């Protein structure tokens, strides 16, 4: 081969190698600077991405240590960004374990009632948890996770003061996915909106309220992808950005299942008869969505219900014996007070006993450093 030709080939090979370092498929190992789309694999779990091209801006490990968890390898932390011109308009913040554990990942402070615009708990048991929340996140309130700190110095000028965040926490007995999608509010308001993003400000400003509602609708439809990703069942079909298309249906989980059935039928994996039967079943499903209502603890609600009926019986029996209204009332009130305390203590004891039979530390709090977070749990 001519020397000049060999030089051209060598130059092309080097160019391809450099391109491979900066552009990697979402299913393979990626490096800082890689451009990914559809989903990215972190800790052997697929993390879905809104449609478009995302840049891996930081990769690090979270400083986390809890002996009760056992060997978890490391908490892998990745931050991806999406830009418009010289501005960062969206950030994806990912935390997940590298090695499966045996006794679950407890709970997170973000899935407890706080300053969120919305908090939805789909399910929660000793080991399993699935919740989503939408909130405002200050961009510079704290140092944040290691991957965020690694990229922030070079991007500080292009960051909004506040993000609108859709967060998802999903865990089972072995694995954990904690992912937060941060969006520049101007993407959802159509332009800059002055002022704060606390709950009162959002309620009193139609543009802010619309933005929060739009992101909530998007999150309700997007969370099914988080669940499929932890099982490595994502196959393209990236969801649109919240600004481009919302999940307008009141049952986005059912809609997603219907679309999946359509694809299986078109591919020949389901016969027409099977497709029709499963389609009818999907339409009849009621999504298991439980919004955290707050209020009285369950044990107290059960106690009140029990005492309403029990007190009536106690009074009737006391009156039959004493034939005295005041004395029967006194006896009934004493029984109610004593039994109420015993009922609550007994109920809490058995709930705790059953929880400990399914997992030793169902109530432990496990959080990491997050963008905008001002405190990190100590793992208890």
Summarize the structure.
The protein is of the alpha+beta class and 380 residues long. It has nine helices and eleven strands.
Secondary structure layout:
Elements: H1 3-22, E1 35-36, E2 39-42, E3 45-48, E4 54-62, E5 75-84, E6 87-97, E7 118-124, E8 129-138, H2 146-152, E9 162-171, E10 176-183, H3 185-189, H4 199-204, H5 206-230, H6 252-266, H7 272-284, E11 290-291, H8 298-322, H9 325-358
Antiparallel strand pairs: 1-4, 2-3, 4-5, 5-6, 6-10, 7-8, 7-11, 8-9, 9-10
Write a concise keyword list for the protein shown above.
single chain; 380 residues; alpha+beta; 2 domains; nine-stranded antiparallel β-sheet; 9 helices; disordered N terminus
Percent range of helical residues: 25-40%
**Main sheet summary:** 9 strands, antiparallel
Mean pLDDT: 78
Provide the gyration radius in Å.
26 Å
Proportion of strand residues: 15-25%
Count structural domains.
Answer: 2
Number of strands: 11
Strand order of the largest sheet: 1-4-5-6-10-9-8-7-11
| Number of DSSP helical runs | 9
Could you spell the SSE succession in H and E letters?
HEEEEEEEEHEEHHHHHEHH
Low-confidence stretches: 1-27, 288-295
What would you call the shape? globular
Question: What is the CA-CA span between the terminal residues?
Answer: 68 Å
Q: Specify the structural class.
A: alpha+beta
